[in-house]
Design goal:
The structure holds two protein chains of two kinds. Helix content of chain A is 11%, strand content 44%. By secondary structure, chain A is mainly β. In chain A, a hairpin with a 5-residue loop joins strand 8 and strand 9. Helices cover 5% and strands 54% of the residues of chain B. Chain B contains four helices and 20 strands. Classes of the chains: A mainly beta, B mainly beta. Chains A and B meet through helix 1, strand 20 and strand 21 of A and strand 1, strand 2, strand 3 and strand 20 of B.
């Protein structure tokens, strides 16, 4: 009797076991899709311009394109899902290099993939030293902290500062420029100036001769005091030699040939705290050689010794201008001026 | 000279006559419900189908036929630099069978142990060397586990067991033969042949269980290493030239060979013990110490080799050599695990019910070294805390006169944040951190017949 019960029990249980196995096997054909991990990324390369598939509501890759205006040199402040964007704007169709009438415009981006709202003037040229143009806005913010200053340049490269007011918007300081071009570059031509805050220091990175990157440091508190009282003293300590030369960057000419860069432009700088808590300084710029230009980057852990990234940060095939990189929604976001029918602000992300 | 006991000869013959030595993959989350509740400190405790993984010798400790059937799941929440990664859950059926018997006076038992995932039987994924990944949770947990073991009692209280775990790897060729027309691909004529094989891979495990006395049991287990590689070949053999004309290159060939290591488990040695407290036999303490040979870890990256033969035109084409990568430099590790089981109720409900409460802890240091260079293999130390309970139901049905055990467990594996710093500030990945938790839950019915 016991043997009979044992056999019945075995059949009962084996039936359940086999049934369970078969039902499990029936799902094996459901091969899951490969997941798309959010891998860590430094933002120093591998960007791809937004496509119309990603942003069907946009004239991709542009997030800001205004008929009748050439818009370039973005600087940005992330605000949750949105961005506050400052750019240089000037009437379209001016000959290359002519910047007369350029001003600093401001636009709000509620969502990146919806593009920017209307561009409105934020700062306009009204001081003699500006020589009729405001160029290259650069947002200076404590890290972490609110925006402190919007730096901008006049036509000769001299640097002005607009502190942020209680309304959260930049307002030009009452009187003179913050720095003359000669203070930074001597008799040489001063190119674009960008800056970061590190501790209590405002650190400016700037282009000289169109082919050298230099650095100047000043006490941030003293800078802020000067914006309130132009008579207060301010001293910048200028680096002795260039941090990088144009030839440190490589400009691909074809699949198999490259040239050292002949000219640099559109410099922007950022200071980031890496996920492990280290400081890192990144520079983004455009390198030109042989009639081609590419967006490039260089990076440093101490802000003084920079290493150029070997590959352009964007693939060839576009004419980039003034790249700047920020962290947006935990991902690296590249904004740059891009020339098409007009010049507008384009966006790129790392796939 | 004394001859070996017949049971030992039987097991040695089963375990050694197996061809190439490949091994049993470790299961990151344990097997069944009782063993994970004990922190997987189970090598000296196992006497059910979980012995197929923890210690094959334990199969012969059972006098009853056993059928175990359960389900378990592990739900990872793993983060790279604070961002949760979409690492897939591991869930599936845990089932097993133990069939004991006597043969020529030798007590032996055969066991089958199966973890059947209900998402992927296995997953092949070949990644670039530079591709960031969570090294121990990406592919490692997405595969079927099927082990067959045989165990015998050598003398009273001494058991040995050995067996095989089965996997398959992919090996395949795609070949084209015919004529390739220069400058007009439309006029090329190539015949295609595809051959893809799932090649069986077997790898052994073996164990010894020694019941020193009624209170103490010791165990020694060996699991061999396991490498699952992917080998794919793409080949074109063709005449190069225009139809009707003398070929520019006759019998030209292009061969692309892609090889990669998809899965790796190190060989392991486990030393275990189980102590039933003499003055309080309701209390069972168990401990395992596992040595895992992670330093044998091969480079987990795809390797592509191109071979081109176009006769006299060869000198015009220079193919790059396949890339070489440094050893990943993984560390060997020791994995301690402890478990405790307390029989809270022994003869409740007129001796129809018993209740066991369980807890466990397991610490697995990360074998992954710092990632200062081009690779980004993310991992962190793992602390696993587990709780469980088991209900033994006796004389439940007339059809099942022997006890039925219903076990359940919950566990959480905690990965404290680990920092990885890159030497080169230009790294496209940059400094990163790895952290997270893995929640586990499972239940199992264990029948004795």
């Amino acid at each position: 009797m016991a043997a009979v019960i044992g056999a019945r029990a075995l059949r009962f249980l084996m039936g359940g076991l086999v049934g369970g196995l078969l039902s499990g096997c029936g799902t094996q054909g459901m091969s899951g899709e490969l997941s798309v991990p959010f891998f860590p990324q430094s933002g120093l390369g591998g960007f791809r311009l937004l496509t119309s598939d990603q942003a069907p509501d946009l004239n991709a890759p542009y997030i800001l394109l205004t008929p009748g205006l050439d818009i370039d040199e973005p600087t940005v402040w992330p605000m949750g899902d949105g961005l506050l964007l400052w750019v240089s704007a000037q009437p379209a169709g001016q000959p290359d290099g002519q910047r007369a009438g350029a001003y600093i415009g401001q636009a709000r981006v509620e969502r990146l993939l919806s593009g920017a709202g209307d561009l409105s003037p934020a700062l306009v040229p009204d001081q003699p030293w500006e020589k009729g143009a405001l160029l290259h806005p650069t947002l200076i913010a404590a890290t972490p902290g609110p925006p402190l200053l919007l730096l901008y340049q006049g036509l000769d490269g001299s640097v002005g500062a607009a502190p942020f007011g209680p309304d959260g918007m930049p307002h030009k300081m009452a009187a003179a420029r913050l720095l003359s071009a000669a203070q930074l570059a001597g008799t040489a031509a001063l190119g674009s100036v960008s800056g970061v805050v590190s501790g209590g220091t405002l650190r400016l990175y700037y282009l000289v001769h169109g082919g050298e990157i230099r650095r100047a440091d000043a006490d941030l508190a003293a800078v802020m005091q000067v914006t309130k009282d132009p008579a207060a003293g301010l001293t910048f300590t200028v680096s002795v030699g260039p941090l990088l030369h144009a030839a440190d960057f490589i400009v691909p000419q074809s699949i198999s040939t490259s040239l050292p860069a002949e000219r640099l432009s559109g410099l922007s700088a950022r200071r980031v705290e890496t996920p492990t808590g280290r400081e890192r300084y990144d520079l983004f710029l455009v390198a030109e050689a042989g009639g081609k230009s590419v967006a490039c980057a260089a990076s440093s852990y101490d802000g003084a010794t920079f290493l150029p990234v070997a590959q352009p940060i964007l693939p060839k095939g576009v004419t980039p201008s003034s790249p700047t990189v920020l962290t947006y929604q935990d991902r690296a976001l590249l904004l740059l001026g891009l020339r098409g029918a007009g010049t507008g602000i384009a966006a790129a992300q790392i796939p | 000279m004394r001859s070996l006991p017949p049971g030992l000869i039987f097991v040695l013959g089963f375990g050694l006559g197996l061809g190439p030595a490949r091994a049993n993959p470790i299961d990151a989350f344990g097997f069944g419900a009782r063993a994970p509740a004990l922190g997987s400190a189970y090598s000296a405790v196992a006497d059910d189908s979980a012995a197929g993984y923890y210690n094959p010798a334990g199969l012969a400790r059972s006098r009853d036929m056993r059928i175990d059937l359960g389900y378990q799941a592990a739900l990872p929440q793993l983060r790279f630099s604070g961002a949760v990664q979409p690492v897939e859950a591991t869930r599936g059926m845990a089932a097993g069978l133990v069939v004991p018997g006597d043969l020529f006076g030798v007590h032996l038992a055969f066991g089958l142990t199966l973890f059947l995932p209900d998402q992927h039987v296995t997953r092949l994924r070949t990644l670039r060397y530079e591709q960031p990944r969570l090294q121990l949770y990406d592919n490692r947990t997405q595969r079927l586990f099927l082990a067959a073991n045989l165990a015998v009692r050598i003398v009273k209280g001494l058991y040995v067991g050995a067996g095989l775990t089965f996997m398959s790897r992919t090996s395949g060729d795609v070949s084209f033969q015919g004529n390739v027309t220069v400058g007009d691909a439309e006029r090329s004529a190539l015949k295609t042949a595809i051959e893809v094989n799932l090649v069986a891979v077997r790898y052994p495990q073996a164990g010894i269980a020694w019941e020193v006395n009624e209170f103490l049991a010791l165990a020694l287990v060996y699991r061999h290493s396991f490498i699952l590689d992917v080998d794919q070949r793409f080949q074109i053999n063709a005449d190069l030239g225009n139809p009707g004309q003398v070929p520019i290159a006759k019998g030209a060939s292009l061969v692309e060979q892609a090889q990669s290591v998809d899965l790796f488990q190190p060989w392991q040695v486990v030393l275990g013990g189980a102590l039933r407290w003499p003055s309080y036999p309701r209390l069972l303490l168990s401990a395992d110490l596992t040595f895992a040979r992670w330093s044998d870890m091969p480079v987990p990256a795809g390797r592509l080799t191109l071979m081109l033969d176009i006769g006299s035109l060869n000198s015009f084409v220079h193919l790059p050599p396949p890339p070489t990568y440094p050893s990943p430099g993984f560390h060997d590790i020791l994995i301690p695990a402890v478990g405790v089981e307390w029989r809270a109720l022994d003869s409740a409900c007129k001796d129809r019910l018993a209740l066991d409460l369980r807890a466990g802890y397991r610490y697995e240091a990360s074998p992954v070294p710092g990632q200062q260079g081009a690779s980004t293999f993310g991992d962190a130390d793992k602390h696993t805390f587990s709780l469980g309970a088991g209900v033994e139901l006796r004389r439940l049905f007339s059809v099942l006169p022997k006890p039925i055990e219903l076990d359940a467990f919950v566990a959480v594996t905690y990965l404290p944040e680990r920092d990885f710093n890159k030497d080169d500030p230009r790294s496209l990945v940059g400094d990163f951190t790895v952290s997270g938790t893995v929640f586990q839950v499972g239940g199992q019915l264990r029948w004795r017949l």
